[in-house]
Amino acid sequence: MKIYNTLTKSKQEWKPLEPGKVKMYVCGPTVYNYIHIGNARPMVVFDTVRRYFEYKGYQVNYVSNFTDVDDKIIKRAIEEGVDADTISKRYIAECKKDMEGLHVRPATKHPLATEEIDGMLEMIQTLIEKGYAYVAADGTVYYRTRKFQEYGKLSHKNIDDLQAGHREIQVTGSDGKEDALDFVLWKPKKEGEPYWTSPWCDGRPGWHIECSVMAKKYLGEEIDIHAGGEDLIFPHHENEIAQSEACNGKTFAVYWMHNAFLNIDNKKMSKSAGNFFTVREISEKVDLQVIRFFMLSAHYRSPLNFSADLVEASKNGLERIVTSVEHLNYLLENGQNGKITAEEEQMLAEAEEFVKKYEAAMEDDFNTADAIAALFELVKYSNTHASGENTKTYLKKLKEKILVLCEILGIEAEKEQDCLDAEVEALIAERTAAKKEKNFARADEIRSQLLEMGIELKDTREGVQWKRI
Ligand code: AMP
Ligand code: ZN
Predict the structure, then answer these.
(1) Which of 81, 143, 187, 312 has the lowest CB atom count within 10 Å?
(2) Long-range contacts made by residues 266-274, C-beta under 8 angstroms, separation at least 24?
(3) How close is the Cα of 40 to the center of ligand 1, in Å?
């Protein structure tokens, strides 16, 4: 398996730190509002990475934080006249609902910044003791960026170029920094803001320190994968490396994975330009599973354009898979009971080739676009190589292949099926009986009732077939 590593700018062979285990940290959202569909991209992408590792038999420890103390949260709290905690708790709950809709499984652990302050104080103290941090006159603690020799290694930036870029800040020089590149680890409280006591001043942490601390606490000093959107490469992840590696004296993460941005109508998402959607808004129009499928239709390192046409295409693609599984379920009802035939064994071997193709795509830096293409080939194969003549064993195995590949992508191809099936089948049986008794009024009534439930009937020579519309 190969993974593109932002750190080395190359695809590298996957090798876990501990055999059979994956330690993975994904930077989560700042919770001051509903998450937008851009925020959903890393969630969906890295949930899929996790699912693939699990499919391969790894035990994945997946940690993703919620930043629940931040300027934006405080601003929102002041606007609403409530405390910051009310805002962050509300939007964490809402974010979890959106994640569920997107089939993003809960992390092994979702730490909250406000619950990890002790760990942050400890790490900051160590950095001060090691000379990597200093306290300014007002109690602000800064990281001494130049002291960390490898600063810039992730974003491939030269520290002197950065210095030039920061000249303006340096000239103003009002914040007690020794150097313009230094960043905040701890800052003094402002009136009306949440704060914690510390040896340096009453205040709150800077943003970057929380991830270094949480990753260490829940995954250890060395982790396999650290991930997030590409906007986090600099400065957030660069600063996390500086903090963790200076504090622990060990390489922080082996693989750094970053997803490209999601744009709307080929433009950067922005509130002011009005091209901005929350996951919640979208969920009112489209099944979020379609959005998930759409997000995976492109490779995670390619920019992805969100447009009604592309979402519609994903909806149709998903429908093809669901219909194919439904057809297999229908055939299974009437399939043959005998032993699987040699010809069927051969067909399963052919179908397995598409599974191999899918795996090869996933193992080439999680190329979900190609993996989905292989899944479609399998679906097509199933549509043309399954009939009422086949044994149930064969049909079941074929269906299982499709479902397993869907599961890795977080797609439920049999969604709602379980609860709907029995009801639909019962109504169809009643309709067949009504027709036999020449009670056509009742038969029509049942057809309309099913239509309202989104089920369309088709009378065929093989019996009544139904599909979701
Ligand atoms: P934030 O709440 O801004 O820290 O973002 C949470 C996560 O969403 C981070 O991993 C960001 O990189 C990611 N993200 C934000 N906007 C987008 C976007 N338009 N496309 C893809 N990822 C994004
Ligand atoms: Zn982070």
Answers:
(1) 81
(2) 266/305, 269/36, 269/37, 269/38
(3) 8
Q: Which ligand is nearest to the CA of 252?
A: 2
pLDDT of residue 171: 41
Q: What is the pLDDT of residues 333-376, one digit of tens each?
A: 888 999 999 999 999 999 999 999 999 999 999 999 999 999 99
Probe residue for ligand 1, chosen from 231, 238, 258, 279 as the CB with the greatest number of ligand atoms within 8 Å: 231
**Residue 415 predicted with pLDDT over 80:** no
Q: Output the residue whose Cα is nearest ligand 1's atom 6.
A: 29
Q: Report whether residue 254 contacts ligand 1, using a CB cutoff of 6 Å.
A: no
Nearest CA to ligand 1 atom 19: 38
Q: At residue 273, what are phi and psi to the nearest 5 degrees?
A: -80, -5
SS3 at position 176: coil
Integer angstrom CA distances of residue 209 from 19, 173, 330, 427, 469: 29, 23, 55, 59, 50
The response to whether residue 152 sits with its C-beta less than 6 Å from ligand 1 reads no
Phi, psi at residue 370, to the nearest 5°?
-70, -35
Going by pLDDT thresholds of 50, 70 and 90, the confidence category of residue 164 is: low
